[in-house]
Specification:
Blueprint (H helix, E strand, L loop, with lengths): L1 H18 L3 H17 L1 H8 L5 H12 L5 H12 L6 H15 L2 E8 L5 H15 L2 E8 L7 E5 L2 E4 L2 H18 L2
Parallel strand pairs: 1-2
Antiparallel strand pairs: 1-3, 3-4
Helix pairs in contact: 1-2, 1-6, 2-3, 2-6, 4-5
Length: 183
């Protein structure tokens, strides 16, 4: 039930922002809200507090965001408060972001490495993948200290393994296959 509600609220906001020709603005605003809430867990506790009225919660939203958010985004947050769905805000924004990415032909993926990559290094991978996949690619760097070297890139159901371990496994398979053919 919660997943359905998340999808419905995200889709409604996506459609409204697209209709008002402010999709990119709303995308940025919602991600500002998500960042604020994710970085301040106690803030969500305020919005979940049963003794605070909806008006108090709306006033808190107004105090925090009024200067930084459009009327559409503010009203959306108010609707979530009235519907007692504000606790789902992070999931709703994640779903909104998925819709935004689909609409803008953006593929999200992860690049798994032993050591953290610089923004320039990530950007180089993104540019190469954008060219080869013919879609804009955004990568998030995830660390795995079991790697010896190289990287694994995961985008949807695609996996590109350029780790040292992966290359050694490929070499092993090749040697096994070649040894069975000869002699």
């Amino acid at each position: 039930m919660e997943e359905l509600a998340t999808t419905l609220y995200a889709k409604s906001m996506f459609d409204a922002s697209k209709e008002d020709d402010c999709l990119k603005l709303v995308y940025e605003e919602l991600n500002l809200v998500k960042e604020t809430i994710d970085s301040n867990p106690r803030l969500m506790e305020v919005f979940k507090h049963p003794l605070l009225s909806n008006n108090d919660k709306k006033n808190a939203i107004k105090d925090i965001y009024e200067k930084n958010l459009s009327k559409l985004t503010m009203n959306f947050l108010y609707v979530l408060i009235d519907a007692k769905r504000f606790d789902m805000i992070s999931s709703i924004i994640d779903e909104f972001n998925n819709l935004y990415d689909i609409d803008n032909n953006i593929l999200n993926g992860t690049i798994i490495t032993k050591n953290s990559l610089s923004d320039d290094e990530i950007s180089k991978y993104e540019k190469k993948l954008t060219t080869s996949l013919k879609s804009h690619v955004k990568l998030k760097n995830v660390l795995d200290d079991t790697f010896i070297g190289g990287a694994i890139v995961k985008i949807g159901d695609k996996l590109i393994d350029s780790t040292l371990k992966g290359q050694l496994n490929e070499l092993r398979k090749e040697l096994i296959n070649n040894s069975e053919v000869s002699i």
